[in-house]
Structure formats: C-alpha cells, structure tokens
From TrEMBL:
Protein name as catalogued: Murein transglycosylase
Organism of provenance: Mesorhizobium denitrificans
Native organism taxonomy: Bacteria, Pseudomonadati, Pseudomonadota, Alphaproteobacteria, Hyphomicrobiales
Annotated InterPro entries: Lysozyme-like_dom_sf, MltB-like, SLT_2
Top-level taxon of origin: Bacteria
Chain ranges passing through the membrane: none
Length: 269
C-alpha cells in the first residue's frame, strides 16, 4: 500500500472513524477486496484495543499470495504415519535431538522443573517446526496473518491471531517487518501470535519475550503444553494423559503421533 494511502487510512481511524462501533469485516477469496477489508478490520482491531503502531502495521500489510498457496497445499498431513516420518526426516531429528538434549541439559532441566514437561516432546516440536532454529521462515508475519484472517477459508480462526499480532506490534514484540512462517507463526517452535500473547514467557533470564531466542521459545512451548493440560510425570504417547496436550499443538493426527514418537526416542522411551 502506498505511504500516502496508508496515512489517509490511519488518519481516518485515529481521528474517530471507528467511533460509531466496529463494522464486521467481510472475508474474500482473492486480493481484490483486501484493502477495503483492512479498513473495516482496522475498526474491529481498534475496538479491541489495538493502538497506533498496530494499526499502522495493518495499514501496511500486503495480500500474501504465497501464504494462500501454502494454505491450500498442506499435503504432507494426509500421508501415512511412516511416510510422514520419512518425509519430515524423523531419524535425523532424533539423532540431532539427542545431541541438542545433551548440549542444552541445564536449559531443559530448568524448563522441566518449571513446567513439568521433559525435553523429548519439546525437542521433537523444535526439530519438526524449524530444524532446531535453522529455518524460521521469511514471510512477512503481519501480511501472512491478516491475509488468512481475510481469506474465507478460516477467518474465524485467524482473526483473533491477527488482532494478537497487531497488539504484539504495539508491545514491540513484533514489528511491521517481522518475518516468520507462511501462516504467521514465529520463532524456533513457530507460535501463532495469539499463543505468543497467551503463553509466551522468558526462558533465559532478563526481561521480555523473544521467540527467536531458543530459551524463550522452548520455555513458551512447555508453558503452552502445560496450559493444555500437561501433567508432570505422566506419559505422552497416544492413549496416555499428556497426549491430549500434544493434540493441542497441532490438529493433524499424523503430526501429533510424530511428536510423541520422536519425543520418546529422544527421551529414551
């Protein structure tokens, strides 16, 4: 969006253009309605407490064709368990994961003491999501998440995450130029913005939460699992108490099984 057009939109919003109450933003299936949708969604965002920085980031967002293409082509989740494990390089994740567990023993011990989550499933998620931080994505986060909030496929799911992303811009956790995965996930373990707000914690001392730092990302992942019912000391394989917490991480059954299997191999189970 051109700078002048962005300024006009922001001026209208900040000078009271949303004072009459938020207008429900309509979804769309192509880029043609995205700019009008942003103006409508900005009213919803402002009504939910998004401030100047967040609204500016929204005004500058672009329709993310690459995100839409990725969302329509998630074919690996339809594979069998064995095929999925092979495609995702499970044996490599297990081998390197054991090395990561040894190299970061103090960090994982601290996380387990705080949240009751052992290293295995955290390392499995870390390896599956970003190859242990080797690739965290290059898609603009605000553009990705707002595109998905606009798209008619799952707007009700992604709108709260879009609002959260704009609030994270207000807080300084994200910026309008932050990048991550295709669906707006960020950091070592690929948190959606709403989960950053709800479960993000500092894992390495100091202040703030930065999921591009492994300590924060891994501690936040453990906090997420605990928030989804993780019971310290209980098993996490299918049929065991903590598998339900893993199910909260990703909706794909084959992915859930992979996390449990890889985690058990890393933990020595």
């Amino acid at each position: 969006m051109a700078g002048r057009a962005r300024s006009v939109l922001l001026a209208a919003l900040l000078l009271g253009g949303f004072s009459g109450g938020a207008i429900a933003a309509e979804c769309g299936k192509t880029s043609s309605g995205f700019e009008n949708w942003k103006a409508s969604f900005a009213q919803e965002a402002a009504a939910q407490g998004v401030g100047r920085k967040g609204l500016s980031a929204l005004a500058g967002a672009s329709y993310a064709n690459a995100t839409i293409n990725a969302d329509r082509n998630q074919k690996s989740f339809k594979l069998s368990f064995d095929a999925f494990m092979k495609k995702r390089g499970a044996s490599t994740i297990i081998s390197k994961g054991k090395q990561m567990k040894r190299a970061n023993a103090a960090l994982f011990a601290n996380i387990e003491q705080r949240y009751g989550v052992p290293a295995g499933p955290l390392i499995a998620i870390w390896g599956m999501e970003t190859g242990f931080g080797s690739y965290m994505g290059k898609q603009n986060t605000i553009s990705a998440i707002t595109t998905l909030a606009y798209d008619c496929r799952r707007p009700d799911y992604f709108k709260p995450h879009a609002i959260a992303a704009l609030k994270l811009v207000d807080k300084g956790t994200l910026t309008s130029s932050s990048v991550g995965a295709m669906h707006g996930e960020v950091g070592h373990t690929q948190f959606l913005p709403g989960n950053v707000l709800r479960y993000g914690v500092n894992g390495g001392g100091g202040g703030g939460v930065d999921l591009r730092e492994k300590a924060d990302a891994l501690a936040s992942t453990a906090n997420f699992l605990r928030g989804h019912g993780w019971q310290p000391g209980a098993g996490y394989q299918p049929g065991q108490p903590n598998f339900a917490a893993i199910q909260g991480w990703n909706a794909a059954s084959v992915y859930q099984q992979a996390i449990a299997a890889i985690g058990a191999a890393i933990d020595g189970g």
